[in-house]
Amino acid sequence: MSAQPSSSNPPFTHALLAGALAGTTVDLSLYPIDTLKTRLQSSASFYPSGGFRGIYAGVGSAIVGSAPGAALFFVTYEGIKSRLRSIREDVSVLSEPVEHMLAASAGEVTACAVRVPTEVIKQRAQAAQHPSSMAALRYILAQRRKIGALGVWKEMYRGWGITIMREVPFTAIQFPLWEGMKAWRRRKTRGEMVTSLESGLYGSVAGAVAAGLTTPLDVLKTRMMLARERQAALPLFRSIWKGEGPRAFAAGMGPRIMWISAGGAIFLGSYEWACNTMSNAT
User: What is the rounded CA–CA span in Å between residue 157 and residue 113?
Assistant: First the structure.
């Protein structure tokens, strides 16, 4: 596998295209595990939500949303990281891990503009509330007469706040770890090159750690998106804690760690590979 200087940021178009490729590749390849995780976290329990049947239910929304969501993330991440690096070099205010935390957090907030409605539709199909992504979308849009256009908008972005609350801590853990391991590798080899295979390995480790630590937030997000009626995060948290106990917030942790660990390898490995390939071609 080819390699490039890992300390340099890819150009805008490279980050855009590589991010789109990485997002589509990881979401489609690991979709069945994501479906099982969603069903484990559903308040209806695993088998009533579909069990092992129809594990590609809702894949249409993932196909539509993966590329633009990941592209938005990496364009924002690389751009802000580059800007923060310039500031650090000029005034020595920020450390590298803080740069990566801030850039990744901004990237996630931007990507959630696409990711949240995609997740709402996808998870309702995965949990067998609707037979397909299109059916879930039509159901939401059909409520316009009852709740108005603003209500439909709110329904599509149900769980926005808790998704941000999950994704920002997740990336604040994953990306500094990933970047830190790449920096360690460069120091160890006294060079600037990190291969896409190494990048994928580091992404897998960083993703597994971040996934385990943020599972409770993921459970809360899933319950909010699957609820028949809109619910605030704090009352829902209290309801789950009182009715099901703290163990409920670890539901799906195994599949989530497995999914995101493998996903981190594919996502960040394929991103590095795509950036390297485009850099070598120019």
Answer: 8
